[in-house]
Amino acid sequence: MSHKEEFTLKINGETKVFLAHPMERLLDTIRSDENLTGTKEGCGEGECGACSVLVNGKLVNSCLIPISQVASSEIETIEGVANSESLAPIQKSFLENGGAQCGFCTPGMVLAAISLLRDNPAPNLEEVKTALSGNLCRCTGYKKIFESTLICSQMEDQQ
Amino acid sequence: MRNSTSTLSMTTPEDLSEALQLLADTDKKWIPFAGGTDLMVQLESNLLDGADFLNIWGLFELQGIEESDCEVVLGALTTYSEIRSSEVIKSEFPLLYQAAGLTGAKAIQNRGTIGGNIVNASPAADTPPALLCYDAELLLSSSEGQRWVDYQDFHTGYKTHALAPGELITHIKLRRGQEKKFNFYHKVGTRNAQAISKVLFCLMVQVNNSRIEKFRLALGSMAATPILMDSLRDAFEEQEFGSDLIEKGLSILNEELSPIDDIRSTGAYRKKVTLNLFKYYMEKIYVGLGQ
Amino acid sequence: MKKRSFPTRVEGVSKLTGKSKYIDDLKFPNMLHGVSVRSSVPRGKIKGVSFKPGIDWEKFTIVRASDIPGKNVIQVILDDQPCLASSHISHPGEVVLLLAGEDREEVLKARDYVELDIEASPGIFSIEDSLAKKEVVWGSDNIFKEYTITKGDVAKGISAGSQVIEGSYSTGAQEQLYIENHGVIAHASDDGSITVWGSLQCPYYVQQALREVFSLPPEKVRVVQTETGGGFGGKEDYPSIISSHAALLSYKSKRPVKMIYSRAEDMEVTTKRHPSMSHIKMAVDKKGKITGLDFEFFLDGGAYATLSSVVLSRGTIHAAGPYNIENVRVHSKAVATNHPPFGAFRGFGAPQSIFALERHMDVVAKKLGIDPVEFRKINVLKIGDTTATGQSIAEEPGYHELFSTVDELMDFSEKSKSFAIQNKKNPIVKKGIGLACFFHGAGFTGSGESYLASIVGLEATRDGQVVVKASSTEIGQGANTIFSQVASSALGISEQSVIVARPDTSNVPNSGPTVASRTTMVVGDLLEKAGSSLVSTLRTTGFLGEVYTEREFFEASGKYIDQFGSLKSYVQYKQPPGIKWDEENYQGDAYATYAWAVYAAEVSVNTLTYETKVDDFVAIQEVGHVMHPTLAEGQIEGGVAQGVGYALSEKVVWEEGLMKNSQMTNYIMHTSADVPDIRVYFEEKNQNYGPKGAKGIGELPMDGPAPAIINAVQNALGSAPHFIPMLPEDLMEFMEASSES
Question: Which residues 81-140 of C have a C-beta within 8 angstroms of A?
């Protein structure tokens, strides 16, 4: 039954065509086919959030989505967050406030924070804790991640 | 760390009628595939080798929440996030609203669907007890036609259910006018988010002049399926609310519940906590009634 | 703390933009994928291996023990662990065979077609069964290592007390749960040399292990650390195994081989924190002074010796805590079972014995009717006092101040009394507050640093940079950033002009393993010395004046390089004079210095669900000079979060030696919605060791949370369990048992 089909996805603003098995995980499309390795695999079962990306603006675990379900969708990965000159405000805030340590959960965490701040530009601490609760971090104890997110939300030019 | 996709197929129908036509071919090992939050995990553990997935995620007929005067109908593909942003669910069906917010975390809530949660038939699933309390009805559709079934009759055993071959859950119906009640949804999970329940306790009581008009207690993680405590409903409805009734309820629960041990918790804990929560919330209602 | 400005994380931008390359992000041309074929039984004899039909076995590289060119051993301390099991199985998941193939899916499928014929024999899975020799599974008596520390006369000390209180305590296994699983890529080249790239903490450990497996000299084995997604000790010794396996597959296939563990595999077979058991007998006089302490301490080491003897050593030395006790005996054993070998995890034995001691302090205080803080104040170490190993404390730990700070920040003493009254009014939620008082030795134990003899280098380049050369790895803790800070300060140049070389055994000297809270204090100190020496070379040769700008520095270094070819400074560790350690009797200066700490937790126990919630957590420590407050706080906050999990949720569910809950869904680490507010405070009084007086802090935060939290539960309920993890199910059982008795 193994057959490949063509799927068109817009990844970080660029339209791409992939020849893939319809059950190929979006995570594998991004990492292997597109070589955007910023999106990580930590558990493969939607628990750790390291593979988080935005699909049509919504935060999802890319390890749980077959490519056939995101045909014609817009995908945002960590590689699309900063522009060529500078970091996005949320990245800058993570950098300055110690929000990243080993860095493995960081791309997913940054996307979860972006998703939150787009929906709710001025979250309180509880809302931050809830919004990031699908992204496990073993290094920080989360405190500096909360601070990074809250401080970013108070900056004027937040994303 | 995905294993083989080579034994799998995935077919994407254009619309519901095509989906139902495809499902009618019962030679295939069809598994409807909605948000994938359960199925992809099972795939990861090689539990679904050889499956023919039917990609229903895009079916517009199964999306959205519709309100009419006396009912609210959820498309089976309504996600937890959509439930969370529905005003009518928030104000009139708080048990379901809370259940959706306690499922996984944001990324799961954006993909997981109510229909998927039902048909996956996990006894630990978060929304079923709420649906049981609301006497939800399910619309099952096939190429032959459709039928409504009471959700209470849907689960027939561990991971088995009343869907006939070729049938798909398309809609979930909730009757309105249920808001003036005591509602308590209490999830005891392994942690505060990304948690599978160890105990789900869902209580809805309507009292009129200290007389119990409606009584629903639904529990998750306590048996092979989510359960609605019929015996309590029968024993409590039309009775005067009182402390003797609470005692009676405790003894019924004590007799009827026999949850199991697994890697997440123990049967003894599940039972004891359920009894504790029952006593606590019933007393809270009792106090709330000004007794 | 003065307002200073601090550099941002050196590799921060690359991590935040997704550009950092972790091992699974790399693809080499012609690369194969390797998998391990593992035993499903915990113990037995290997009878045979069969390759079932249905697979074209020609397509796969197969490696067995007989393919090993050197010794079939994973070199750690004793050579007891085979690289591939050839005759016996000693734990579930032990590797018998390796497979590699073009396509990962296909190799995984092929693995299911290999059948291991193993004649199973009964295993043992508890310290008790191992001590009782229910089965002898290692050596002649199941004992990996045994220590005894004696100070004074413990029998006399015990009889001198007006009360003698005994207690038994236990702690469970804990998974490191770095978010990046283990992984390596190995390549055996035609010239007979081996290169491994991987997620690891200690490149030279891996090099040593590979040298044994392949019988190669050091110059033929190269180990390169790739960006590493967390270690916490979990990537200290295990990378030697996965690297050897991948390298063997490459050696046989002549192609690069990638091996990446899945989450379940990683959780099931890689190392975890050692489970422990402690029996304490403590005698106290009428004034609350501890007169004698008799401490029996046991660790479950798992199937092979690995690092257990060193973990046991640290646990043993920390067992008597930061208390001035005249008569002490600590007797300890690490024993064998048929669990996969336990290994390094932040704290390295200390969290286990400190949990037992600090819980016992509260149990004793309760029994004596003394305030637990007062009880500790009477007994804490002061400058000039001696530890259990007889080490004279050369600096003032300042515990009395640490206790006062806790009081100021949390209203500790008031709450410890008022909660009792408040709890009477609230039948559902019981509040409690508790603390732990502890220390953690920085660096290797005893003569360990002297034995390691670490080397660190600095090299100036022609294009105006100075390169730090050390094998110490950045694993999230901030080593790169601290190194660039130390070097820039010692050289008098900006941090931007300092480059930290990637740890690669072909390019950096052995600065020792990245473990034991030693990187900043020990390696940083060497780096500072290397910097001073480099500057002094430039001054001696007249290229640089007393006062200089960065530009002048690089002009000088440029001229020096032009004239002499290169400008380098390498410094090797030398033990400071006056440090004495008697390895035989475990007496003397166990550590160069210690971090001193008091951690306190406020909890709510829900008596309906038996859930314990940490409402507030304060971590106060004296750690010398704080090099980088953001990084230092991040270390403490992260460690405390791991400690909270250790106490309340992180339970490994075992079945016949195999971890059953090997999924992130079922092994419960905390999410952002679970962690308490963690308030971190530093005292910076004793600045006698390390660069600018910075002591090690990496492991410290793992020691305090568990006893502080369970002591708070005791404060809330009147009594509390003597074990961790304490899940709600456990607390229910405990409370039901207590109410019956």
Answer: none
